[in-house]
Protein: Glucose-1-phosphate adenylyltransferase
Organism: Rhodobacter xanthinilyticus
Amino acid sequence: MKPQPNQRLSSQAMAFVLAGGRGSRLNELTDRRAKPAVYFGGKTRIIDFALSNALNSGIRKMAIATQYKAHSLIRHMQRGWNFFRAERNEYLDILPASQRVDESKWYMGTADAVAQNIDIIEDYGVKYVVILAGDHVYKMDYEIMLMQHVETGADVTIGCLTVPRREASAFGCMAVDATGRITEFLEKPKDPPGMPGDPSQTLASMGIYVFDWQFLRELLIRDAEDPHSSHDFGHDLIPQIVKYGKAMAHKFSESCVTSGLETEPYWRDVGTVDAFWQANIDLTDFTPKLDLYDNAWPIWTYAELVPPAKFIHDEDGRRGSAVSSLVSGDCIVSGSEVRNSLLFTGCRAHSFSSLDYTVALPYVDIGRGALLSRCVVDRGVKIPAGLVVGEDPEEDAKWFRRTEGGVVLITQAMLDRRAAVLG
């Protein structure tokens, strides 16, 4: 079956987003929400990037497979991504692990999450399937990757990052020939392969795969019947295609979307508290590595109807101000000093308080005289008046989670335990 003439390939494709991961390295940030539902960048969630890339690329059929603590994610989908219209041949399906195939089976792996929904994907009537991870931050035009997939006649096309070879052991890595055909796929190897022409660099998998749907359908059915398979794309299906079929590498640099301000392709796995904090704080730079202000490639999300941010008091030592910071709607900075920080929707910073290199998630209340530095504050936390965090590492670690990088994560449960001990 050839692509339909005079149609973008993306209009014949669907995006299948794997959004069931817990993200345990984010610690308490994922106690109540899956990693794709974690907040990022002032008003968005991590999953908004993969979905926005698909939408901006021209894909109007999407499915999101959820599993771990999915309520926050599903609610976000219902509120922020409910604009698809079936009469325009647009669809967005949320596919929780619901024991559809077997009463004892949840999603057993990434491939199984797709296999359990074969009948639903069939109903879309699509030619191509783009498999996406729902927990990375980047901007990418999937149409370019689809074009390469068709032009090369690949069985699978894999999105790849170019990373220094010494750092590649954390990824699934690929050895390729001069044409970009993958000759070997290695999951987190101790000695990653170099690239043709540049042995100091390695191609690492982004967890993005393009398949012809009929090819993938048959592959999934065979894999589901294999009792020795872990039913995972990276561990099972991809190595099999590399060995017996045609797997092609697609370099992220060829389809990365930039506004002209970004100096290099931007991709982040914000899978640890340190990485999450750093990626958010990076947005406060004079010229950030990721341009969120690019209206040509918007990051769609649930836009709450809230009043504008407000800054009040103008006295020495009590001046509502924010410098090199992102301040979202419904925030009130009342006689507080905010520097190099992000305030998500609905935050309150009271008089004589100070925030420096702090990421405050929605509806955080910073008490009078509190001083916070190098912190991540979870949603809805009420910081007590006078609390000082970021000056005494031992005291911080006594009550809160302090990372190896010196970032302090604060949740309401931690504050409640502290209050109970101190009386």
Summary: The chain has two domains: 9-284, 310-422. The chain has a mean pLDDT of 93.
